[in-house]
Structure formats: structure tokens, C-alpha cells
Amino acid sequence: MTHANPTFPPGDAARVVHSFPGLPIVIVGDVMLDQFVVGRVNRISPEAPVPVVEFEHDEHRAGGAANVASNVRSLGGDVELVGVVGRDQAGEQLAQELEARGIGAGGLVCDSDRRTTTKLRIVTNRNQQVARIDYETDEEVTGSTEASIIDRVRHAAVRARVIVVSDYLKGAISRGVMKAVVAIARECGIPVLVDPKIPHIDYYAGTTLVTPNHHEAEVATHMRIRSDQDAVRAARVFRERAGCASVLITRGEHGMCLLDGEQEAHFPAVAREVADVTGAGDTVIATLALTLGAGAPTAQAAWLANHAAGVVVGKFGPATVTPEELINAIVR
Questions:
Q1: DSSP bridge pairs for 44
Q2: pLDDT at 249
Q3: Within a domain: residue 133?
Q4: What does the DSSP 8-state code read for residue 138?
Q5: pTM for this structure?
Q6: Whole-angstrom Cα distance, residue 92 to residue 33?
Q7: Domain count, the chain
Q8: Phi, psi of 141 (to 5 degrees)
Q9: Which one of 30, 34, 167, 282 is the catalytic residue?
């Protein structure tokens, strides 16, 4: 067993980041529309002990698997996004958000029996969240919708370097979809990375790398993680349960723990300021995908992803990282 706290020479890391443009990545998973209603709070409602939000403006962003795609695109990668939306205004808005970012919506399967997953957040102009309303249909896809997702993954994977599965338990990742993704990746000779949800842990057998967060790893393994060695022990149990090759546990302010074969590696957190951790896992798996797609080893991919996460948690809401921001974070 190898213990390591790997480093990545800044010059080498920068060269890898500079190779991201044009790398083809396929992302399959639960796409969402994040809507923010932003306003000013000056008083409490006389009707109930809640703040009155005076509307100023609203914003729309691509969330879930679509935020992973936005992160890949922001770093220069070429993205094929596969997921499911409803035949509704939110689905149209999401397609517009994707196209504005240079991400084609052709891989989105439209199912008129579902609604597009939407998270409506009411926030103050100081970025304090007041409430959230979720619109969703979370039953797993079946029938022609499931078959269409698999067909679009198969078509896109032919030229891809990596397939990313972004599972938010909103229905796009069924057992059948996951089994097909693993088989397609094996045929194409490319890795499959998974941002998981624990109720689906037995879906991920045969995947290359799974990236649970601290809480997910504890729930899946029934183990407490309080130290680096606890994290390694949990990663081993998680790997056995999931049937994957490698595990990267993201541990918030405690950094990351990688179990890759018999090598274990720990990466201390590098964030200087934490504004919002929303979507940080999306940034991590997007950076991992591009770095592995560029031919770097897993430990170097995790090192870069750790720095990318350190940048994105300093921003509000589901955010992205640019190559310039990532390089600046590496060399400072």
C-alpha cells in the first residue's frame, strides 16, 4: 500500500489544463433548472414570522448534470449532455441556458409525462436563502424514455474520452441506464466516473471512479469518518459495496481522500473563502473527467479537482471555473 500526499508541479498541471479545450466528454444524468428569485428584505410579514422579499430580479442557471456540463464547457471541454426533461417551459428555459453556454441540448430526451426538475430558490440580494421550492418527477425512467437515453449515450460515446454519470435520484439514472453506460464505456475503452447517490450504490458496479461526499460515504459504509485513516477505511468498504475500481471521498474543509488500486492519497482543502458549497461536487467531477481525458493519472486528476473546488466554493450558487482561474489557483 502506498501512502501519499501528492503534489503536481505547477508547470505540468498548467500544461494539462491547457490541453482541456476540445476534449470530448459525455455526461449523462439528472439535468435541472436552478431559478433564483432575488429581492430585498426590510421587514417581517405581519401575517407570519417570515421575511417579506421585495422582488428585484430573477436568474436562471443550469443545474445538476447540466451544471457538470457547464463546468466541463467552462474549462474548454466539448460536451455531449444526455438527460430527460419535461415538455414544459422549464425544459425550454434549460435548453436556452445550455445553448447560451455552447452546450447542445440534442441529447435531452423529452418526456411529456414528466416535469423538468426545477429548484426555485428565494434569496436576498445579500445571497441569503429564504426558501426553496422543488418541482420534480423522480420516478426512474422506463420504456421508450430509458431506451432513448441509452441510445443517445451510445451515439455520443463513440468519440468521447470519458463518460460522467451525474446521479441526483431524479430518475434519469435507472438500473438499465447504468448497466448500459458501463457496457458502452467498456466497448469504447473509456472510463466511467460517477457522482453517486447512495440508494443507487449497487447500480455502479464496473465503473472506474465514484466520488461520494463525506456524508454519503458514512451512510453507505455505516462508518464514522473523523480522520484520514477513517476515510481510507471507509473508501475500501465503499469500493467493495459499489463494485467500482477507485473511490474519491470529498470531505469539505478536510479536503479529499483517494483510494486508487492500492494507492491512498490525501489532499488538504485549498479554499481561501467559502461562500457556497452548492455544485462543488459538479466542479470536482468535471475537472476529474477532463484531466483523465487528457491522459493524466488519477492522483493528479484528484489534485487538480481539489484546486478547482477551492475556487468554486468562493462563488454563490452552482458556479463554474475557468482555465485561467484554475491555473491561478495552482500557481499562487
A1: 51
A2: 97
A3: no
A4: -
A5: 0.92
A6: 10
A7: 1
A8: -65, 150
A9: 282
Distance of CA 105 to the CA centre of its chain: 18
Q: CA distances (Å), 124 to each of 54, 130, 276, in order? A: 9, 7, 14
CA distance 158 to 198: 29
DSSP string, 228-262: HHHHHHHHHHHHHHHT-SEEEEE-GGG-EEEEETT
212: which 3 cell numbers? 461520494
34 half-sphere exposure, CB direction, 13 A CA radius: 18
CB atoms within 10 A of CB 131: 12
* Phi and psi at residue 258, to the nearest 5°: -110, 130
Residues of the chain short of pLDDT 70, as ranges, are 1-6, 271-279, 316-318, 332
Take residue 95 and report the three cell numbers written for it: 435548453
Write down the pLDDT at residue 270: 82
Residue-level pLDDT at 214: 94
Q: What is the overall mean pLDDT for the chain?
A: 92
For residue 47, is it within any domain?
no
52 pairs with which residues across the strands? 43
Return the CATH number at 318: 3.40.1190.20
| Alpha carbon distance 65, 215 (integer Å) | 20
113 catalytic residue (yes or no): no
Cα separation values, 189 from 25, 103, 112, 278, 308, Å? 14, 24, 35, 32, 27
Three cell numbers written together for 53: 422579499
Instruction: Kindly compute the dihedral angle of the four CA atoms of residues 236, 256, 284, 253, in this order, to the nearest 10 degrees.
Output: 140
CB proximity list for 298: less than 8 A, separation 6 or greater: 209, 246, 258, 260, 292
For residue 84, being part of any structural domain is answered with yes
CA angle centred on 265, ends 167 and 271, rounded to 5° = 70
- Report the alpha-carbon distance of residue 247 to residue 267 in Å, rounded: 14
Range of the domain at 101: 2-32+62-114+138-331
Residue 46 lies in a domain: no
Rg (CA), the chain: 19
Alpha-carbon distance 158 to 185, whole Å? 9
